[in-house]
């Protein structure tokens, strides 16, 4: 069995992994947005949630182009990442550091997506899947922008607010 | 309880999380290096393993500077990421796509480290922990370089080899 697996199999397996991950992320982001106290942070996470819907549609297009049903595959990585995010919501509820923790959790999600979409886009290029490559690159660019926006929020305002309250 | 938690608590919790993660990574990398078929990839992973030892020492220095024992905290994210890496080793053993899969797994590990060290370095700056900030930034730079090196390997040679064999 293993002797016959190729980069195409690996590409498909990874597509299923990220599809499962995106569907989990879609469910988790609203919880983070509700818990955030900063309006800017709520807006950033809500915007990421809306983008996630479009990213799932792009994945479904790729599945369709390969005549495959858009079925996800259990992805222990995103389950673990989101579990840590939930721990932050539970353990830092009411803390002035909650928003800083939510940003960190959201960035951990972004980086998982960044690394998987980066890999998938490379493989699509190598496999000559031009349309898939464009769709994956479009999502990758969105993820990188979301991550950069969250870094700005973390550095500019929210962490500082957490410190000020902590010192008060 | 929650009312009294601050950014310092969040920083310490996250330090414990990444310490646990680094120790798990130290155990997992040799398995990936042994399984890799490309000499360049084996060398890259071995080099990351050696760096990980130094990164753990830096974390231990930070714990010492804060008069805390270097105890890790269970990190479900890295457990899930490494579980997916092990799945690749099992499912793609003997496949020409194995090295491409190993690179993807190693990059997922790198990106988890990149996001956590990025967050920790920002928080150390905000907390005025100058020495910790320098140590964290040094590790972050190493992780970013390792990730870039793996991307080069993925694009240049190993995936191409996987395709050539798959097409043969």
Summarize the structure.
The first copy, chain A, has five helices and no strands. With 168 residues, chain A is an all-alpha fold. The N and C termini of chain A lie far apart (63 Å).
Describe the 3D structure.
2 copies of one chain form a homodimer. Chain A has 168 residues and is mainly alpha-helical. Helix content of chain A is 83%, strand content 0%. The first copy, chain A, is built from 5 helices and no strands. Chain A has helices at 7-35, 39-65, 76-91, 98-126, 130-167. The longest helix of chain A is centred in the C-terminal third of the chain and has 38 residues, at 130-167. The interface between A and B is large, with 56 and 56 residues.
The SS-based structural class of chain A is: mainly alpha
Helical content of chain A (DSSP H or I, runs of 4+)? over 70%
| Number of DSSP E strands of chain A | 0
- What is the CA-atom radius of gyration of chain A, in angstroms? 18 Å
Task: Please describe the structure with a list of short key phrases separated by commas or semicolons.
168 residues; homodimer; mainly alpha
Topology (elements, then pairings):
The structure is a homodimer of 168-residue chains.
Chain A: H1 7-35, H2 39-65, H3 76-91, H4 98-126, H5 130-167
């Amino acid at each position: 069995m293993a002797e016959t697996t190729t980069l195409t199999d690996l590409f498909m397996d990874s597509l299923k992994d990220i599809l499962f991950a995106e569907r989990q992320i879609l469910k988790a982001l609203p919880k983070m947005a509700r818990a955030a106290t900063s309006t800017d942070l709520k807006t950033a996470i809500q915007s990421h949630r809306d983008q996630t819907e479009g990213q799932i549609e792009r994945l479904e297009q790729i599945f369709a182009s390969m005549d495959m049903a858009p079925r996800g595959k259990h992805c222990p990585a995103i389950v673990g990442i989101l579990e840590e995010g939930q721990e932050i919501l539970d353990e830092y509820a009411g803390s002035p550091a909650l928003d800083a923790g939510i940003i960190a959790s959201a960035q951990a999600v972004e980086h998982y997506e960044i690394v998987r979409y980066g890999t998938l886009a490379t493989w699509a290029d190598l496999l000559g899947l031009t349309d898939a490559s464009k769709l994956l690159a479009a999502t990758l660019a969105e993820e990188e922008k979301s991550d950069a926006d969250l870094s700005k929020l973390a550095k500019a305002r929210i962490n500082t607010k957490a410190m000020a309250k902590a010192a008060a």
